[in-house]
Amino acid sequence: MTEAIHPTGPTGLGHTVRQVLLSSRPLSWINTAFPFAAAYVVTTGRVDALLVVGTLFFLIPYNLLMYGINDVFDYESDLRNPRKGGVEGAMLDPGMHRTVLISGVATALPVLLLMLVLAGANPWSWVVLAISLFAVVAYSAPGLRFKERPVMDSVTSSVHFVSPAVYGLAVAGALVTPDLVALLAAFFFWGIASHAFGAVQDVEPDRQGGISSIATAFGAAQTVRLAIGFWLLAGLLMLVTDWPGPLAAFLVIPYILAAWPYRSISDAESERANNGWKRFLRLNFFTGFLVTMLLILWVVLR
Q1: What domain range is 268 assigned to?
Q2: By C-alpha distance, which of 21, 27, 29, 110 is closest to 71?
Q3: Residue 23 lies in a domain
Q4: pLDDT averaged over 10-residue windows placed end to end, the chain, 302 residues
Q5: Domain of 272: which CATH number?
Q6: Distance (Å, whole) CA 193 – CA 34
Q7: Which residues have CB under 8 Å from 218's CB, separation 6+?
Q8: Is the sign of the CA dihedral 167, 172, 175, 178 positive or negative?
């Protein structure tokens, strides 16, 4: 039996900064900052200090907290995962673990406090933010580890991306309507589908590391089919929103097509789903552009 080799690498301030930034998944920054900014701007129609500070918080500190905690406490299992060590997850030297955790708290706290001051007395927004930050910690932190509770892992991951939008709506004083609920539900199911599909490629490394997930519980093929079903449900929900919302229903089609070839994949070959996951990551930029265009159209038609 071969022992896990703990990698070591260069040291120095530049290396430390690069490792901390890599741990925050720069490729995913937009996935949490954009929902907040879009929800706030569309609701208020203005650009102000709260928008800037809130976008900054959900752009970098939020992701450094979320993914930094994940990279630190998933270190042993990540050693067995060939995907780790790049944009899909940093392979942090153990000596960097404390630095990453401290950096997450140190960058998040001042921005978070300023955001709370700018938002003022808004109890609903406090509740939403508390749930969001709890989900960030609970996903990977020892004693909670929601990521190892099948189905709860995908639900919690979706909360990571939907909650910034809900917070933006809350601080902006958005009126809760059936249309808005349908839109947020669609986003939520899209998030569940995305996490579930992403877990498929890690079935074997997770099992070897003794980690449970929605994919290890249901198997690779069934999880892909669940993801396709949740994407389809997200699209159907968008059909009942006000115009031009129904146009967004078509945006789930590329995701379904990306996952479709893996609907019968075996657990032993689940690593092949990484090709579909890479397409998913590229699709997010294309979809984000189209969502932005739809938001602009909605503002023009309002």
Answers
A1: 175-301
A2: 21
A3: no
A4: 45 73 82 94 94 96 91 68 56 74 91 94 93 96 93 97 96 93 96 96 88 95 98 97 93 96 96 94 89 82 72
A5: 1.20.120
A6: 19
A7: 150, 226
A8: negative
Number of domains in the chain: 1
Say which amino acid occupies 9: G
3-state secondary structure the chain: CCCCCCCCCCCCHHHHHHHHHHHCCHHHHHHHHHHHHHHHHHHHCCCCHHHHHHHHHHHCHHHHHHHHHHHHHCHHHHCCCCCCCECCECCCCHHHHHHHHHHHHHHHHHHHHHHHHHHCCCHHHHHHHHHHHHHHHHCCCCCCCHHHCCCHHHHHHHHHHHHHHHHHHHHHCCCCCHHHHHHHHHHHHHHHHHHHHHHHCCHHHHHHCCCCCHHHHHCHHHHHHHHHHHHHHHHHHHCCCCCCHHHHHHHHHHHHHHHHHHCCCCHHHHHHHHHHHHHHHHHHHHHHHHHHHHHHHHHHHC
Q: Which residue has the tokens 């689940």?
A: 270
